[in-house]
Amino acid sequence: MCVMCNPAFAEAFRNFTFPSRRQMLKAAAAGAFVCEAADSAPALAQEGSLQDVASRFARNTFPQVTIFRAKDIVTLDPDKPSATAVAVLGDRILAVGSVEELQAAAEGQPYVVDETFADKVIVPGLIAQHDHPLLTGLTMVSEIIAIEDWALPSGVVPAAKSPQAYRERLMQAHAKLRDPGELLVTWGYHQLFHGPLTRADLDRISTVRPIVVWHRSAHEFILNSKALKAYGIDAAFVASLPEAARNQSKYEDGHFWEGGMFAVIPKLLPALATPERLRRGLEFVTRYFHANGVTLGCEPGGLFSKQLQDAQNAVLSRPESPFRFYFIPDGKSISAAFPDSTISETQNVLGWGEGMTAMMPGAIKLFADGAIYSLLMQVREPYLDGHHGEWIMEPDFFARAFKVYWEADYQIHVHVNGDAGLDMVLDNVEANMRRHPRYDHRTVAIHLAVSRKDQVERIRRLGVIVSGNPYYVGALADAYGAQGLGRERADAMVRLGDVERAGVSFSLHSDMPMAPGQPLFLMHCAVNRTTASGRVAAPEQRVSRLGALKGVTLDAAHSLRLENEIGSIVTGKRANLTILGDNPLTVDASGIKDIAVWGTVQEGRVLPVK
Question: pTM of the entire structure?
């Protein structure tokens, strides 16, 4: 018998006033109520019939749930660490368990069991905790001549590992440009691998073509004479710079680093960031991060420019973007430009995002010392050759800006590479905790290239958390052991083993293009610590596989104050999942970087890698 024909239903229907009779008829006509065999349909008594009808009506108007079956699901939920099915409703996770458990829990709600991932492993959506989309796009569409191979969607760009190889590749890049006046931009040069390089060296390649060499650190430029002239960088301009920037410039060599680099980049950007290069670069970023399983990304402290932010939004904010991307404002630039209205000016940038991009409220990025790839970290003990590190923000300037943001309850992300730089950062945290105590401030020490064991305990005590780049070890430990730091300091770079044992929350980041923006590769680096020569550097600083996975999921979310939204597979969180060919917690440690990425589920959207 059709439930609509049941006499008890008819009696209840006559007395039912909400929802309206018209609404009920419309729902019935649309199939919200289904016919059942008379012998299986429960009898509806006169007493309580309204409740039965309302319950049946509600069950049959629930939206359809998708239950994804998997070979294994790593949830990172301590109460249910593994499962074989996850139920997704819209953009949220509804439940986790086995298919049978989730089917039983549906209790009449429509669902479909999706077998697409039946032979795959699901992990929480991978997070690119600290990357630079604009910088990545511009470097990756330039002529890449770097110290390592770069595996790109278009193919592998091989490394240049000697001065001779670098110069041969640079000459080839020059020769293949047909227009003699066309700009040549190349990225990846590093002096320890490629030898010294000056304006005079570039002039020997061409005095007609502008040549811009972007250092592997992305914190330095070397220009030939034609580029200096073409972009309005002359001796008078350099002499007019503030002292710190002037001291980090060498006009006669065409060399600009740290503060000098920041001073000349506005003159170079119109040529480096043409609309066509920006579009190509950002579309590369979209393909690259999705291919590596990223479901959410963040850039702490990009260039302070509404025009450039709009250019990024034009690609990354599209509704079809495979990941959501957050931006944290550059407090260095804001506090320098607006010393008396720093907070209000910071709040003004919150409207710069749109669609799938957003500025992160209540968070800011500051900078301590120089880049690791430039060997300009501020270190406690001298470099082997006696040179000194650099400050990006001079200590007095840093302290003023830090205090302003601290007292406004901002979460402060700090670029810091050397142990002396870390001392300065921790001194500021401690001084401000004593003046203005804060609970759960989550100040983030970013990069942690060179640090000391005593600093890890201080990090723990002060409530600081860590975002480490484990790629530094593989790329640089051998070279920096021989030149710059010495073996002991170089091998102990990014001492995440001590951080993990101390119970300090840590995340992993690539700082792309400082390292490949591949979360599984970062896990691999942190777990193995294998150098370019194949040896293991400071094995005691290796981290657990679980810690490394959390470093690109749950602890990465914690570092962005999003752990209640993403980072683990639990009821109520966003349905962000990464679909893998194997389990990073059980596969041989040497194979973590080789695990295939099938694709992602991003806020409920199933997005296979094309």
Answer: 0.87
